[in-house]
Design brief:
Layout lengths: L1 E8 L9 E7 L8 H11 L19 E4 L2 E4 L15 E7 L6 E3 L2 E2 L2 H9 L21 H6 L17 H5 L5 H12 L7 H8 L13 H5 L6 H15 L1
Parallel strand pairs: 1-5
Antiparallel strand pairs: 1-2, 3-4, 3-5, 6-7
Helix pairs in contact: 2-5, 5-6, 5-8
Bound molecules: iron/sulfur cluster (SF4), FE3-S4 cluster (F3S) and FE2/S2 (inorganic) cluster (FES).
The site of FE3-S4 cluster (F3S) has 13 residues, from helix 7 and helix 8.
Length: 240
């Protein structure tokens, strides 16, 4: 298959504005990933292309980008998912995720995203004495199941940067941070729910979510994000 890969390029040391780079690739297989195509460009055509990636297997969360207009991990996006059956030539457009400052090409500044993440206290809080005899704090399988889905987040930012509420106002804490808050608010061993609910119940917290569902569609871990946000909203009206 022949692929024309259009990549949104930006290098503030060369030009003030972004531009489109176009790269023609032949012998592309349906099972190739978009990350593999980007590597072909970087390693054989233009070494100045900049992107983040690490694991290449959907685990590290570092290569979220906008592929044909929708957020996805480049390493999980197969060419076959972008082509119609039997199609022999294909255009694929790749851009950086939206709503975060672009540093170079496909690399964005993740710090505003991480700031929202830190704001929800994404760690276990429990100052009560530990159980005697060095035992663990026990939890029933039923209690663990309540937040199982939100433990799967890999902090790729595909959700937050596909959310129109976040595009409109980057003070919105965003779906990824709420997923992290959910993971601890509903953990029966944790004692920090009140602090976290205060953060996500604030002006720029969960009420900025308008139930658009882009976040849920974008999540490579298939986390039911909009549902988790709904559960946090419900907790705010019942727990606080
Ligand atoms: Fe990525 Fe999903 Fe976590 Fe959002 S919730 S940061 S889309 S893994
Ligand atoms: Fe945004 Fe997801 Fe809510 S896309 S508006 S956080 S449901
Ligand atoms: Fe690690 Fe894609 S490179 S998730």
């Amino acid at each position: 298959m022949q692929v024309l890969l259009r990549i949104r390029r930006y290098n503030p040391e060369l030009r003030d504005k972004p531009w489109w780079g176009e790269y023609s690739l032949d012998n592309v297989a349906p099972h190739d990933t978009v990350l593999e195509l980007l590597h072909r460009v970087k390693w054989t055509m233009d070494g100045s292309l900049s992107l983040r990636r690490s694991c290449a297997h959907g685990v590290c969360g570092s290569d979220a980008m906008r592929i044909n207009g929708a957020n996805a991990l480049a390493c999980k996006m197969l060419v076959s998912r972008l082509a119609k059956p039997g199609q022999q030539s294909l255009k694929i457009q790749v851009e950086p995720i939206l709503g975060l400052p672009v540093l170079k090409d496909l690399i964005v500044d993740m710090e505003p995203f991480m700031e929202h993440y830190r704001s929800v206290l994404p760690y276990f809080i429990n100052d009560s004495p530990a159980p005697a005899n060095g035992r663990e704090r026990l939890q029933s399988p039923e209690d663990r199941a309540i937040f199982d889905d939100t433990t799967k987040c890999i902090l790729c930012a595909a959700c937050t940067t596909s959310c129109p509420s976040f595009w409109a106002n980057d003070k919105y804490v965003g779906p990824a941070a709420i997923v992290q808050a959910h993971r601890f608010i509903f953990d029966s061993r944790d004692e920090g729910a009140a602090q976290r609910l205060e953060v996500v119940g604030d002006t720029f917290g969960v009420w900025k979510c308008r139930t658009v569902f882009n976040c849920t569609n974008a999540c490579p871990r298939e986390i039911e994000i909009t549902r988790a946000i709904g559960e946090v909203k419900h907790a705010l009206t019942t727990k606080s």
